[in-house]
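Lecture 7, part B: from sequences to assemblies.

Below are the input chains for today's worked example.
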Amino acid sequence: MTPITLTGPRLETERLILRLPQASDFPAFEAFQNGPRAAERGWQMDKPALHDFWHKQFGRWVMLGYGWFVIERRSDAAALGFVGIGAPADAPEPEIGWTIWRDDAVGQGYAFEAARAVLRFAFDTLGLASIPSYITADNTRSAALAQRLGAVRDGTTLSGGQPCDIWRHHPEGAA
Amino acid sequence: MTSRSAHIPVITTDRLVLRLQRASDLDPFFAMMTPERTAYVVGQVPDRSIAAQILAKNAGSWVLRGIGPLIWTLDGTPIGHGGIYWPLDEDAPELGWMLWNKDVEGHGYATEAMTALLAYAEARMDLPGLWAGIHPDNAASHRVADRIGLIASGETGPDGDVIYRRAA
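Predicted structure of the full complex, as structure tokens:
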């Protein structure tokens, strides 16, 4: 196997580095996907679907110039989760989203810190006028984070087959 | 700020340019997915978002495996796609190809593209268990398999496909 290193943007924050995914991140991602927090959200996938999803994350960067960053902690280089711009199958436009893979990294403000950097990337580098987050109504934790980031409610949509609230981020409202 | 990886090849053959899938391929890729074109290959017409995800997944293969399928263009127009499909959860690489409309059949384009892709891959990596599965009625693809050096192995796939392997 001769994987290629994908090059692209790298964003830095106080405690985190947001970089493109690499093949070695897969075990951490897979462990989260097979764990209870992914099950709670209805994000479980069988093995082929999980691999399909993983391949797509790389392909989106290659084809579109945006995608999911892996959140890497500066202090120990641990891969903590995904943050970035995704394109759910049935959603009307790309969204900003976040997932913390490791239980011990939840509740420490990492997703907020990472998402804020990606919002700046979306507005300043990609030049987007606004960007939604699609969040299921029962995911109160993510909805609270969207609000902290300055997003406002903007209707509902289907995303990944689930009815979701649209939380819309604008450059002027960004935290 | 974003630089695309420079390691994904653009392969030029006598008549074709084989290159990575890009966002502008989605419209023609989805448009060609009629029941007639996909009958032997996918079995059904995917919706547009699934088509987009297929393209993205195929592009990702180049990053994770260093090999994958490419879009085949003739004078700048996409006319087909194919190459080596080897997702990380599959043990053996699979060859697959597809021409996008009737007008480009019968000119040897698939043979030309797949010969070049195979040469590219085999010069760079082992392809253990390389195989292709072809619908029994798909006469055109059986001819391509023959011309690019595959032989029917006598095996039948779970969906009834004829399994081809690399000639020894």
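Note for the exam: Chain B touches chain A at residues 1-5, 7-8, 20-23, 49-50, 52-53, 55-67, 87-89, 124-125 (CB under 8 Å). Keep this in mind when comparing with the next example.
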